[in-house]
Amino acid sequence: MSEINWLQQLSRRLGDPRLLALPFLRGLAVIAGFVWLALTPTDFVGWILLAFALAAFTCYSLLLYLLIWLRPGLVFRLHLPVLLVDVAFALLLIRLSGGAESTLFLGLLLIAGLQSYYYGIRRGVAVAVGASVAYVWVIWPTLVHHEWANAAIRIAVLIGTAVGVGVLADIEERERLAVAALNREIEVRERFITNVVESLRDGLVVLDADGRVRAWNRAMEERYEVKAQEVLGRPFLDINPTWKREGLAEPIERLLRGEIEEFAVEGLEHETLKKGRVILNVKGSLLRENLAPTGAVLLLEDTTEKVGLERSARQAEKLAALGTLSAGLAHELNNPVGIISSRIDLMLQEAEELGLPPQVRQDLEVLHRHSQRVARIARGLLSFARQSPGDRGLVDLNGVVEDTLLLLEKQVSKEGITVRRSLAPDLPPMQGDPNALQQVVLNLLTNARDAMADGGEIRIETGTVASRPGWLRLVVADNGRGIPLDRLPKIFDPFYTTKAQGTGLGLSVSYGIVREHQGTIDVQSQPGKGTTFTLTFPVVATEDHA
After folding, report:
1. Does the pLDDT at position 314 exceed 90?
2. CATH of 200-302, one of 3.30.450.20, 3.40.50.2300, 1.10.10.10, 3.40.50.10490
3. Which of 35, 65, 221, 367 has the fewest CB atoms within 10 Å, measured from its CB?
4. pLDDT at 282 over 70
5. Which of the 8 DSSP states describes residue 33?
6. Better pLDDT: 318 or 114
7. How far is it, in rounded angstroms, from Cα 494 to Cα 329?
8. For 451-517, where are the alpha helices, taking DSSP H only?
9. 3-state SS class at 467
10. Packing angle between helix 121-139 and helix 106-119, nearest 10 degrees?
């Protein structure tokens, strides 16, 4: 393993893995020279000089190794002097080892072949021809008649080697360039596909045949606040346990088994681990290779905002229609209810003076209570149907909360309920109607109190919205009995109530007030754990808002 790492490090320093061959071939040449010398009889003429020459070549090679490691770029810029020195050493060794009879001629073959391989066929052939001329000059004194044929063959082999290696190197270079071009094209396509996937506003997940995550795009990271590195290789259904109880596990498992080609689930109420409840449209498609299932692609469209806008639009239409009806109905009820209530008051007074039977007094008191209730409903209808936003000005949201708590805090404390404030300091003022906003806060606090018959805690917070500069946030949360999931979409409907004595107008009126202030109101609830209302308001409202 250490040898491989060393080679990889050396390759990176050289800049080209092919250049690793140069130091290794030079080393083999040195070893071959010493082996040849060791096998040569010591009485060989010039043996000592040859040994010194090999030693000098070895020292020279070691110096090149050091320079290649320290300054690889310098060595390759000086490739021509290095070539001349190598040829000179090769000719010297041939001359000292017998001239025309020397087998060290192979060194010239190696040099010419390497030149063709690294620098092209023209450079290799030129080196081969030059080396051939120098070789003939070196061996000329030792040539005899019978050695001319051997010398000619060696020269032919030398030039042929340069040509052959050059042709092969050219083919290899073309193939290498073609492969490099193909790899670049693949990289471009991969980057394009990656950019497309990462640019999708919808979440995209790719699963393998075992249901493990192989791709997790940026939209999924933002939605779940989980990076791709944290989920890659993990089973998808284990990342968020809510998938299983929400009914998504079965179609995914069937898809991975190849039992279905695709599936679609719309309007899925999904509880994320970090970002709360969202509404998703989920589409799944099977991946195949050679007809065998290899995985699946899941597309998760977040329709929470879209559904919220649709619900808001429907709610606004309901409120507009019911507002007109309620205004007329309230005006028609006020007069007769007022007369009835006044007459009952007089009758109760006369019953006291005339000494009427207790049963009559009780009946009158019942009638009085119910007339008062009708009067409250009429007042609620008038509030619900009001057409003007009231007096607008700069409002301190913290001040509205504090003023409302003064009205209710002592009462709720007697009922075993604790109110915890978390009001952001230096909160910018907003434009609005303080009385209407106080009514909203009072309605929310009253509902929170009514949801905790056995005591509990109400948490009220104010602050800014980090994701929406210029917006304020108001949160009213309780740990009461909560609201069943099937009832949540209806709680802002007029006359819908879960209270025995409620009119069903409190939240509807609050919704209308928030809408008049161009704000939003959202509710999240879990039965047995409590309910959280989150309101947002712009600091400055636009004039053209309806």
Report:
1. no
2. 3.30.450.20
3. 35
4. yes
5. H
6. 114
7. 14
8. 506-516
9. coil
10. 160
Contact 211, 235 (CB under 8 A): yes
Helices (H), 78-140: 79-96, 106-119, 121-139
CA atoms within 13 A on the CB side of 192: 6
pLDDT surpassing 80 at residue 522: yes
d(CA 428, CA 122): 79
CATH 1.10.287 intervals, the chain: 307-384
Go through the chain and tell me how many residues it has.
Answer: 546
Match 């002592």 to its residue by tokens: 410
Instruction: Tell me the mean pLDDT in the region 530-537.
Output: 92
CATH 3.30.360.10 matches 393-538:
no
Instruction: Name the token pair of 217.
Output: 């795009």
SS (H, E, C) 215-263: EECHHHHHHHCCCHHHHCCCEHHHHCCHHHHCCCHHHHHHHHCCCCCEE
On whether the CB atoms of residues 211 and 237 are closer than 8 A, the answer is yes
Residue 16: both structure tokens together: 């080209």
CATH 3.30.450.20 residue ranges for the chain? 200-302
CA–CA dist 533, 524 (Å, integer)? 7
Sheet holding 262-272, edge to edge: 213-216, 203-208, 292-302, 276-289, 262-272
Q: How many CB atoms lie within 10 A of CB 538?
A: 19
The two tokens of residue 68 are 């290649």
Angle of the 121-139 helix axis to the 148-199 helix axis, nearest 10: 160
pLDDT of residue 462 exceeding 90, the answer is yes
Give the span between the Cα atoms of 133 and 139, in whole angstroms.
10
Instruction: For residue 442, give both structure tokens.
Output: 């009072």
Is the Cβ–Cβ distance between 460 and 420 less than 8 Å? yes
Q: Write out the two tokens for 153.
A: 């063959």
Unique residue bearing structure tokens 């596990």: 249
Please report where in the chains the tokens 């090999």 appear, as a residue.
Answer: 54
**Which strand (E) or helix (H) includes residue 4?**
helix 2-14
Q: What is the rounded CA–CA span in Å between residue 35 and residue 27? A: 12
Residue (of 119, 118, 112, 62) closest to 87 by Cα position: 112
Q: Round to whole Å and give the CA distance between 343 and 129.
A: 132
The DSSP output letter for 146 is G
